[in-house]
């Protein structure tokens, strides 16, 4: 099947979703995903962050689709033409989605353990606007404990349902779900029942924000001060393949191994995650491959030679013309950021 | 012309004997003994009957989409989870004449080849559920339900399911989830219920009124039904009329009468309550755009507006609205549009399922902003903010609840922006009990 995404055409198998096809091309074209998580069956379609425009449905029926469609659950058709980053409507809608997701989010990144590896941070940095329009009071919840090792901060939750699917699929016995409706909906283990099975810790890894955090790691370090290392161990319950995070000589955290989309494919058991906090427990394989754009790689693996485009764009936007004779073109990049809103 | 409510005032019409005395269940006899399922479907197609739940999708076409793989059961589900503010027609029909619905269910199930069918009734209507249960038992006793109905070899079991107590369960896929015993969250489409519905089997979900109309169509033919009405709006429609009119209630109207007639004629609403003037109408239940008096009586082009799907939506959302589910809410000049919009926004905030982010967060945001405006704490930029939030919700959600929440807000601002501005600019006047904005020169201004 032939599909064209942002003017790039590629061949894919029937049944591939737009998201999967876009990921084959690369991260520049792939729509953001806040709720979709490839290893979890049934995930996706909820956050609406990956809405894209289909300008031609298929070779047979080349009409455009009337609404934006979620890339993560829409299967490609032969001859489909998709616009993601090149479509104004899509980018405008995405701005709205960021705004919605941050509407009741506490923005407590400075004290949140997830900061630095948070998908919501990435998403709002790439697609959001720098100011907020809301003056309403935010909905708040009290933090609760899900068992001895996991803490839930419902304030930060974006209701992606990933943890619900994890609890349903990875762990046996459904104890984890959503209560209430609308913006009062909350993640809960039914009636304060703790999750006590061996794979419950994976809900921490799948959480895109800091809603589910590891109590053995809370407030120990910012992620960019710690150093991730791939390691494995002998484990009878899981594959034993993990990423262990060092601060100095100390193992402060163990997580599943994430791929370039931030997804864990080999889920690890609670024993590996919460109890094996000594180097002697692990066979070290080598440093984890971290994208050089990630804050986690800062000051660790050599200098970042290529400056990210953002400061340049920011400078271009803030640039004030003081003399009509001066040539603007020296900035190099035309300001592509949206004009700031009139007050 | 009355089809559904012809005998509704006959004493004891809710008992099967009285119902059969007035011609009840003749459609079951005719369909099961003399017609094939395809012939029934063909008559429904010919009738031009459109879904009465709100969307107005042609019912015969919906039936023809039903996948019919070998060895897989098919289901008919009746959507009786009527919970749209302003709409109370299904409730009335089921309460007064439950057998009308059951007769339609048997005929429709026969046409679709469903051997198990469900009526999903709004959870708040417990006494209606009891009425339906009793009526179903009577039908079983007469051999109209169960195995080998009337010796035709066709089996049908009919169940009543109390709803989950949420507006969202009226959305067809959320209804199916709820019917399966899960949380009533809408599903992503495709797959559509016609392919994968209840328990992943092909399913048709129809409104009470649509299903009830099929028995008359079987008895009298699709052409006779299509002869009533105008253009593609055929047959009769139950309208739930409420608000500042002399005679609120449920009326069965032939589609195609003028809106003016409907509001002012003594046969229907009987006009605006004494000494008051028409200000605005919500023509099809809370989710459709509100229209001011001048646009509801005549279209923007100056033609008389009719009670049909096409005429009410004439002018798109700029100057039109929708027939929707027929919840006809009339407001006179004492009604405050901001307050009314707040009521609707609160409702959708309360009823959003919280699954997808635009609806979950956007409905709450709109509610909070309008609440501030209503209570004298609005800012002038809030009006454009509301329009923008509504725009960002609309079309970007899993199910139509997002649209339903966005449309009334956007329409109220579109047609009554000056009223919102007055609330913001004169909070001391607007927050006085009973204070209402009077537009200079408008037909409803005193």
Written account of the structure:
The complex is a heterodimer of chains A (343) and B (446). Chain A contains seven helices and 14 strands. Chain A is α+β, with helices and mostly antiparallel strands and 343 residues long. Chain A is globular, with a radius of gyration of 22 Å. Chain A folds into four domains: 95 residues, Roll (Ubiquitin-like (UB roll)); 81 residues, Alpha-Beta Plaits, CATH 3.30.70; 89 residues, no CATH class; 35 residues, no CATH class. In chain A, 18% of the residues lie in helices and 18% in strands. The longest helix of chain A has 16 residues. Chain A has a five-stranded mixed sheet with strand order 2-1-5-3-4, with helices on both faces. In chain A, strands 13-12-11-14 form a four-stranded antiparallel sheet. With 446 residues, chain B is α/β, with parallel strands linked by helices. Chain B folds into three domains: 212 residues, Rossmann fold, CATH 3.40.50.11540; 101 residues, Ubiquitin-like (UB roll); 94 residues, Up-down Bundle (de novo design (two linked rop proteins)), CATH 1.20.1440. In chain B, the strands form three sheets. Chain B has a five-stranded mixed sheet. In chain B, a hairpin with a 5-residue loop joins strand 7 and strand 8. In chain B, helix 6 crosses helix 9. Chain B is globular and about 75 Å long. Chains A and B meet through helix 2 of A and helix 15, helix 16 and helix 17 of B.
Brief synopsis:
With 343 residues, chain A is an alpha+beta fold. Chain A has seven helices and 14 strands.
Order of helices and strands of chain B: HHHHEHHEHEHEHHEEEEHEEHHHEHHHHH
Oligomerization state: heterodimer
User: What Rg of chain A do the Cα atoms give?
Assistant: 22 Å
Helices of chain B, by number, come to 19
How much of the sequence lies in strands of chain B comes to: 5-15%
CATH class category name of the largest domain in chain B:
Alpha Beta
What's the N-to-C terminus distance of chain B? 38 Å
Instruction: Characterize the main sheet of chain A.
Output: 5 strands, mixed
Structural class assignment of chain A: alpha+beta
Strand percentage of chain A: 15-25%
Helicity level of chain B: 40-55%
């Amino acid at each position: 099947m032939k599909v064209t995404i942002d003017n790039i055409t590629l061949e894919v198998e029937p049944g591939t979703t737009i998201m999967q096809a876009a990921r084959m091309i690369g991260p520049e074209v792939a729509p953001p995903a806040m709720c979709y998580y490839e290893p979890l069956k049934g995930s996706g379609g909820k956050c609406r962050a990956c809405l894209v425009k289909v300008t031609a449905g298929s070779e047979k029926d080349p009409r455009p689709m009337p609404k934006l469609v979620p890339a993560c659950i829409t299967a490609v058709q032969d001859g489909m033409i998709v616009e993601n980053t090149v479509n104004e409507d899509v980018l405008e809608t995405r701005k709205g989605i960021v705004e919605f997701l941050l509407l009741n989010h506490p923005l407590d990144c400075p004290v949140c353990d997830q900061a630095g590896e948070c998908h919501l941070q990435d998403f709002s940095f790439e697609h959001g606007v720098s100011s907020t329009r809301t003056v309403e009071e935010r909905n708040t919840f009290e933090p609760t404990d899900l068992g001895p090792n996991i803490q839930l901060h419902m304030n930060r939750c974006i209701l992606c349902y990933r943890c619900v699917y994890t609890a349903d699929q990875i762990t046996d016995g459904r104890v984890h779900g959503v209560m209430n409706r609308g913006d009062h909906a909350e993640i809960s283990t039914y009636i304060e029942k703790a999750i006590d099975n061996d794979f419950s810790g994976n809900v921490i890894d799948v959480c895109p924000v800091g809603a589910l955090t590891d109590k053995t790691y809370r407030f120990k370090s910012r992620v960019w001060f710690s150093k991730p290392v791939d390691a494995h161990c002998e484990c009878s319950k899981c594959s034993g393949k993990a990423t262990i995070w060092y601060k100095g000589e100390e193992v402060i955290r163990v997580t599943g191994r994430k791929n370039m989309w931030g997804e864990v494919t080999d889920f690890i058991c609670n024993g590996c995650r919460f109890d094996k906090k000594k180097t002697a427990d692990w066979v070290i394989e080598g440093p984890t491959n971290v994208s050089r754009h990630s804050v986690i790689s800062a000051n660790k693996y050599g200098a970042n030679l290529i400056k990210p485009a953002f400061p340049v764009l920011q400078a271009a936007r803030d640039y004030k013309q003081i003399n009509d004779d001066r040539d603007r073109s020296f900035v190099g990049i035309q300001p592509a950021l949206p004009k700031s809103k009139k007050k | 012309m009355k089809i559904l409510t012809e005998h509704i005032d006959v004493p004891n019409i809710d008992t099967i004997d009285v119902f059969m005395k007035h011609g009840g269940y003749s459609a079951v006899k005719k369909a099961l003994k003399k017609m094939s399922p395809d012939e029934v479907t063909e008559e429904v197609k010919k009738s031009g009957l459109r879904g009465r739940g709100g969307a107005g999708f042609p019912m015969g076409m919906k039936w023809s989409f039903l996948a019919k793989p070998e060895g897989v059961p098919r289901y008919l589900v009746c959507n009786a989870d009527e919970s749209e503010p302003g709409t109370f027609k299904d409730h009335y029909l089921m309460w007064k004449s439950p057998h009308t619905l059951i007769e339609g269910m048997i005929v429709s199930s026969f046409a679709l080849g469903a051997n198990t069918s469900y009526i999903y009734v709004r959870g708040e209507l417990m006494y209606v559920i009891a009425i339906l249960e009793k009526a179903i038992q009577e039908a079983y006793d007469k051999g109209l339900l169960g195995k080998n109905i009337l010796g035709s070899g066709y089996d049908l079991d009919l169940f009543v399911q109390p709803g989950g107590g949420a507006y969202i369960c009226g959305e067809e896929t959320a209804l199916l989830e709820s019917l399966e015993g899960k949380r009533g969250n809408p599903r992503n489409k495709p797959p559509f219920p016609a392919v994968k519905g209840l328990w992943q089997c092909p399913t048709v979900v129809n409104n009470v009124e649509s299903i009830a109309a099929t028995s008359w169509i079987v008895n009298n033919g699709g052409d006779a039904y299509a002869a009533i009405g105008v253009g593609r709006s055929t047959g009769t429609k139950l309208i739930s009329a409420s608000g500042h009119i002399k005679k609120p209630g449920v009326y069965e109207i032939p589609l195609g009468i003028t809106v003016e007639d409907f509001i002012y004629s003594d046969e229907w609403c009987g006009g605006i309550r004494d000494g008051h003037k028409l200000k605005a109408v919500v023509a099809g239940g809370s989710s459709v755009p509100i229209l001011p008096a001048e646009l509801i009586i005549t279209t923007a082009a100056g033609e008389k507006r009719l009670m049909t799907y096409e005429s009410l939506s004439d002018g798109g959302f700029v100057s039109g609205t929708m027939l929707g589910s027929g919840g006809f809410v009339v407001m006179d000049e004492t009604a405050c549009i901001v307050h009314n919009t707040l009521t609707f926004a609160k409702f959708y905030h309360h009823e959003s399922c919280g699954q997808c982010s635009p609806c979950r967060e956007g409905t709450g945001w709109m509610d909070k902003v309008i609440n501030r405006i209503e209570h004298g704490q609005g800012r002038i930029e809030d009006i454009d903010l509301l329009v923008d939030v509504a725009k960002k919700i609309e079309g970007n959600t899993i199910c139509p609840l997002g649209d339903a929440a966005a449309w009334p807000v956007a329409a109220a601002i579109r047609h009554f922006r000056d009223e919102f501005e007055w609330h913001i600019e004169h909070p001391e006047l607007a927050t006085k009990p009973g204070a209402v904005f009077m537009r200079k020169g408008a037909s409803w201004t005193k």
